[in-house]
Write a structure and sequence with these properties.
Its main location: membrane. This is Chromate transporter. InterPro entries: Chr_Tranpt_l_chain, Chromate_transpt. It comes from Paenibacillus albilobatus. It is a single chain. The protein is built from 16 helices and no strands. It is mainly α. It has one domain. The longest helix is centred in the N-terminal third of the chain and has 41 residues. The chain starts with a helix and ends with a helix.
Length: about 400
């Protein structure tokens, strides 16, 4: 009886997820996340899971994990790519654009304002900012627990998750994560039987394969062609677009990994000073949303609002093209019976990577004292026991962080 109820619930989730949504619905959901998703890319995946899988039921747990696995393989900001992919599932190409705008625009506008007004203010020691980092601990812990129950429920997959977490912590490399995911997939192919895998639902991708191929052609054409155009044209706008497009195309690991690449591009060229760069980095830690919107800050420093627009679009355009090019093929591959066991291993590895990230960087950057730990426990209880929405827990932790800062 319980199995029938669970199967019915799973079927209802799939049916609801396959229904297309309006652009305004997608924009509203992603804007909510863009305003409340503090804590970096790993925390973003926790916020996304809570909003899109648990609350809105736009997709099931396994489909979500498969999207996360895909975006771990692609260069660029993984959390933004997951958001774009979910938007495309819900509303096609326009849905992907709406999802990107909603998740990205709040932090981009905030950083542009920082560039104009607040880039000289040090926010790194603000109590409320520390509280936001503690909120990320609770959000990621909830995501690890929920995904582990669904994607690593047995001894074998649980062991894959634990080994992946251990190796990830001892070998902190974006390329190391790619190798671990690939190794887990190979293990799953040979040792995790496909017969034990439930039927894999379609992602509901409406993008045609010829559109996907065109996206790949545009991506490669821009990556190779922009440096050539830049060499024959003195345009500052073209130089700016080429720089940020190239960084967005070639960085693996996302988030903080992009910062040294950007610094190497913009500081030696004299586009921004070292002090301006570091001030903007400090401001970026104080806002929700993707860290890649740091490009909007740099563009504003270089050339005002126009520079911000060029840098921001160039930085995220590779992700949009890569997701558009990959999704139709990925959806077909993931539903093949011989690949289902591969994804059992991959999804267990994704749980392990998330578990490792719960410790570093999420825990190590937030929990320093018993008071911090108590606030994290309270936030986790509000999420998992009292079922408060993440934005309310974020506000709770911001207030708690400010209080702790005042008392200590």
């Amino acid at each position: 009886m319980a199995g029938q109820t669970e199967a019915k619930s799973h079927a209802e989730t799939q049916a609801k997820g396959r229904r297309k949504g309006t652009i305004l619905e997608i924009l509203g959901a992603s804007t909510k996340l863009g305003l409340t998703s503090f804590g970096g890319p790993i925390a973003h995946l926790g916020y996304f899971r809570d909003e899109y899988v648990n609350r809105r039921k736009w997709l099931d747990e396994k489909s979500y994990a498969d999207l996360v696995a895909l975006c771990q393989f692609l260069p660029g900001p993984a959390s933004s790519q997951v958001g774009i992919a979910i938007g495309m599932m819900r509303g096609g190409l326009l849905g992907g654009i709406a999802s990107w705008i909603g998740f990205t625009l709040p932090s981009a506008l905030a950083l542009m304002l920082f560039a104009y007004l607040l880039h000289h203010v040090d926010v790194s020691s603000a109590g409320w900012l520390h509280g936001l980092m503690i909120a990320a601990v609770a959000v990621v812990a909830q995501a690890v627990w929920g995904m582990a129950r669904s994607l690593a429920p047995d001894r074998t997959r649980g062991t894959i998750a634990l080994l992946t977490a251990i190796i990830t912590l001892l070998w902190p490399s974006a390329y190391g994560q790619l190798i671990l995911i690939a190794a887990a997939g190979l293990f799953g192919r040979w040792f995790l039987t496909a017969s034990a895998v439930p039927e894999t639902p379609r992602l509901g991708i409406s993008i045609r394969r010829r559109t996907a191929v065109a996206a790949w052609v545009v991506f490669v054409g821009l990556l190779l062609g922009l440096p050539l155009l830049r060499s024959v044209s003195p345009s500052q706008g073209l130089a700016l677009f080429d720089t940020f497009f190239r960084v967005g195309s070639l960085v693996f690991g996302g988030g903080h990994v992009v910062l040294p690449m950007l610094q190497a591009e913009v500081v030696p060229a004299g586009w921004v000073t070292e002090a301006q760069f570091l001030a903007g980095y400090g401001a970026a830690q104080a806002i929700p949303g993707p860290l890649f919107t740091f490009s909007a800050y740099l563009g504003t420093v270089m050339n005002g609002w126009a520079g911000a627009g060029i840098a921001l679009i160039a930085m995220f355009l590779p992700s949009f093209l890569l997701v558009t090019g990959a999704l139709p093929f990925w959806d077909a591959i993931r539903r093949r019976p011989d690949f289902q066991s591969v994804f059992k291993g991959i999804n267990a590895a994704v749980v392990g990577i998330l578990l490792a990230a719960l410790y570093n960087p999420v825990w190590t950057k937030a929990v320093y004292t018993p008071y911090d730990f108590c606030l994290a426990i309270a936030a986790l209880g509000l999420l998992m026991l009292w079922k408060l929405p993440p934005w309310a827990v974020v506000l709770f932790c911001a207030a708690g962080g400010s209080l702790l800062s005042a008392l200590t």
